[in-house]
Structure formats: structure tokens, C-alpha cells
Amino acid sequence: DLRNPNEPEFLQAVTEVVEDLIPYVNEHRPDLIDLKILERMVEPERIVSFRVAWTDDQNQIQVNRGYRVQMNSAIGPYKGGLRFAPDVNLSILKFLAFEQVFKNSLTSLPIGGGKGGSDFDPKGKSDMEIMRFCQSFMTELQRHIGSETDVPAGDIGVGGREIGYLFGQYKRLQNNFSGVLTGKGTAWGGSYIRPEATGYGLLYFVQCILDYNNEKIEGKTVCISGAGNVAFYAAEKAIQMGAKVLTLSNSQGAIYDKEGFSLDKLNYLGTLGRDLAKYTKKYPSASYHAKENPWQFACDIALPCATQNEINEADAKRLVKNGCKIVAEGANMPSSAEAIKVYLQAKIHFGPGKAANAGGVAVSGLEMSQNAIGQQWAREKVDHRLKLIMENIHKTCVRYGKEPNGYINYLKGANIGGFIKVAEAMKAQGVV
Ligand code: NDP
């Protein structure tokens, strides 16, 4: 694409969506063609890119690049996470922002789509270095965001600690305590269940798939990748629901526990930081596989919860061959385009990230509502609403993704279901 050179991830995400949308629009919504809705949706409303200079613990000046991609505000303020990782670039942030537009629409909450971050690598940095970086990042970002303009959250490398430092600097510069970020601590405006929401929501979505097929989760084997926020709470909920979680991983390798993780084992793993290999010393039922991913192990359900393109075609074929029946994405675009073709051809149930991991942003949306009315809802209330939202997303996917032979193409369902509301809003709001 001449307009987006060197943006393979963005082009991959757009292709995945327009392959479903073009036939749908041609057949059902020709009114949207002349309005150039699709052409407008692939062009971000605004992108800001800025210098982030900060001082490390050796008093050396470091320079990183910060971004915010404000993709679409047709149905609400821009909303989407901030990612701090060395491989962050515009292609990755544009793909994430584009996906976010559909995901946020699917939640049925009034939130538009955006994404941001920096090529800053938080690994190995001290607490004070993280704080100084976050303060410098927010010193510029604050002029572009606001509780009714753009509300960032966390993503890879941005958790509760970083949101705290970012919020503190925003408040200091703007003299304004408002819901400008989500993922805040529960003592200062955060919502209960937000840290757990993406992982829990993923399992609620898997539960919907199983219910739809009259199956039970008890005893099903589950392979999960990642050992971060999403992976951890996906594993916790899967164990609580009676599934047998066999793997977790990070960018250094995978842990396979043939007896399955218990909640105690999972909590122990959570104390190890990135040194997952240590787990095998305490639990001999487990083996460590350096530089490998979990997709070589047989399972009923695969939950990729680490990063984009972590399942390639060969991995997907291995999963299918080993009997995997459900792939539900906790991460964003973890399956390559070729891997998705393998799932759809094998007619296994494939829950794409924009549907399956929407629980995180959904609870972020609920955090915005709580901030707007100055309240904090009980844990049970938020969890209940999260469940209802995931059930609704599943219904939308079935509505738009059901094929004549009864197979549910969740990807198609999510693409079309997420698109319609945004397209209607853009149509109503004129040519902008
Ligand atoms: P975290 O930073 O908490 O955890 C990321 C995990 O993935 C870490 O275990 C990390 O390992 C691993 N990982 C990162 N890069 C790679 C890689 N190249 N290969 C293998 N493993 C890797 O992030 P989150 O859990 O928040 O996010 C994970 C995914 O979920 C992302 O795709 C994110 O966009 C998506 N997501 C997150 C949401 C949220 O609410 N947090 C909401 C919706 C989607 P290591 O420590 O070794 O780098």
C-alpha cells in the first residue's frame, strides 16, 4: 500500500477486516460505498508523535519516541491502551488502534478507538527510571487527552504502577482529578475487576462458545501463552472453572505442567518474575522449554495471551492436528493470517481478539462510567456486567457470523458486528 509503506502489521489487520466487510457492504449496505466509510475508517483521525527525553539512574540522558494514534471517535472518546516495548512503532500502534475501534464498538459501550505507547523498554529499569520516563511521557501526552477526549489505559509493559505515575503527572499538570486514564488503583478512582477483566472476559467468552455447542469446560485441557496480566488471570479463571491449564510462557520459553496448574502453583509462578524455569525446581511434574512456545502441546483449548503473530501456520496446523477445538485470543492479533486460514478451514471455533479479549476495555468503559458519576461499584456488580457484555459480544458474533452450514465464523461476525455501529455514527455525523 503506497500510503502505508513499511506497515505490515497495520496492513495485516486491515486486510483481515476488509475481506469480510467489502462483500457485506456490497450486498447489504451499498449506501455506505459512496460515503467512503471504509476508506475513512482506515485513516486515523489524528496521530501524534513526540520526543520523550528522561534521565536514567546514571544521570545519562535517554531519548525515546512517544505516540498516540487517535483512530476513530464516531461513537465516543478515543480509548485504548499504551504499550511500552522496544519494538513499538507506528505500524504496530495503527494495527492496534484499528482493531480497537471494532472491539470497543462490540462492547456496546460509547467508546471510540485509539492506541499509543513508546519504544521505551521497561525491562531492567529501576522504579525511579520508570517514574521519570512516565512523567516525561505524560508531560507531552497530557495536552492531547482528557476524560471526554481520549482515555488511555495499560497494555504490554504498562500496568498499575505505570498508570499511577502517568496519572500523578497528568493531575499535577492539569490540576484536574478526572477519569483520564483507566486501570487506576481502586483507592483512587479505579474499578474493581479491571486487572482481571481481559483474562476473565476471555474465559467467559470461551464459556459462551462451549455453551453454544452444549459442551462443558470441566476437564478440558488448556494451553496459555504469556505470563503477564492477561495470561495470569485467564489461567486463574480457567482453573476456577474446572479446566486443566497445562502451559504458560514468556519471551524466553514455556512451562508445561502435565498435572496442570493449581491456583497455588499459579500464584507461585507469579512470584518468579520472568525466571519461569525456576518453577520446575519446586514442581517436578513440569518441564521448561527454552525459546519455545506452547503450541507444540496437545490441548482442547488454546489461549494465546502474549503478543501479535505468536501463532504461525505451522503452529496452527500442529494445534489442529493435536485435537485443539477452540482458539480464543487474549492477545491482539496473535494468530498470523495463515494461521487463521488453518482454523477456518478445519472449522474449529476461533474467537478473534477483538471479540474474545474485549473484556478489558469493557471494564475500562465501566471505570469511566463510575468516574463520571463519582461512584465505585462492588466487585460482584462489575464482574456480572463483564459477563453480560461478553455474552452479548458472543451473540453479535453468532448473528453476523453464522454460515449456512451452521458454523460460526466469529471473525466475520465480530468484524461486521463491530463495524455497523461505527458506520452508522459516521454516516450521521457527515463527511469528517
Ligand atoms: P504484559 O506486559 O502484562 O505481559 C505480556 C506477556 O507476554 C509477558 O509474559 C511477555 O513475556 C509475553 N511476551 C511479550 N512479547 C512476547 C514475545 N515476542 N514472545 C513471547 N512472549 C512475549 O501484557 P498484557 O498481558 O497486558 O498483554 C498481552 C496481550 O494482550 C497483548 O497483545 C495486549 O495487546 C493484549 N491485551 C491486553 C489487554 C489488557 O487489559 N492488558 C486488553 C486486551 C488485549 P516477557 O516478560 O518475557 O516479555
From TrEMBL:
Signal peptide annotation: none
Cross-referenced SUPFAM superfamilies = Aminoacid dehydrogenase-like, N-terminal domain, NAD(P)-binding Rossmann-fold domains
Q: Which InterPro entries match?
A: Aminoacid_DH-like_N_sf (IPR046346), Glu/Leu/Phe/Val/Trp_DH (IPR006095), Glu/Leu/Phe/Val/Trp_DH_C (IPR006096), Glu/Leu/Phe/Val/Trp_DH_dimer (IPR006097), Glu/Leu/Phe/Val_DH_AS (IPR033524), Glu_DH (IPR014362), Glu_Leu_Phe_Val_DH (IPR050724), NAD(P)-bd_dom_sf (IPR036291)
UniProt-listed Pfam families:
ELFV_dehydrog, ELFV_dehydrog_N
Highest taxon above the source species = Bacteria
What Gene3D superfamilies does the record point to?
Answer: Glutamate Dehydrogenase, chain A, domain 3 (1.10.285.10), Leucine Dehydrogenase, chain A, domain 1 (3.40.50.10860), NAD(P)-binding Rossmann-like Domain (3.40.50.720)
A single Gene Ontology MF term assigned here is:
glutamate dehydrogenase (NADP+) activity
* Coiled-coil features, chain-numbered ranges: none
Q: Which UniProt keywords apply?
A: NAD, Oxidoreductase
Give residue ranges for domain Glutamate/phenylalanine/leucine/valine/L-tryptophan dehydrogenase C-terminal.
Answer: 191-430
Which protein family is it in?
Belongs to the Glu/Leu/Phe/Val dehydrogenases family.
Assembly and interactions?
Answer: Homohexamer.
Q: Return the protein name.
A: Glutamate dehydrogenase
Species of origin reads Sphingobacterium tenebrionis
**Which lineage is the organism of this entry classified under, starting from the top rank?**
Bacteria, Pseudomonadati, Bacteroidota, Sphingobacteriia, Sphingobacteriales
